[in-house]
Request: fold
Amino acid sequence: MATINMPKKESVESVSPPASQGRVALGRFRLQVDRQTKATFASLGDAEKVGRDIKKAHPIVQVSVYDAQEGEQTLLD
Reply:
């Protein structure tokens, strides 16, 4: 019978996660489309402007701005 030499498994500590897994860096104001974060902004005005542009182009989707510091969510019409 033949012997198979398998490589040793790396320990969990030595394996580092990938640098980016497609996640958005989270800021204070988060623009959400259908409850999925699409972008973050430093100011509420910028987030609302982009959100209203998205809502104007796609009236069916739910667009909101989430304030992470206050924990409040504002729906855009």
Observations:
- Residues 26-76 form one domain.
- The chain has a mean pLDDT of 85.
- Helices lie at 44-57.
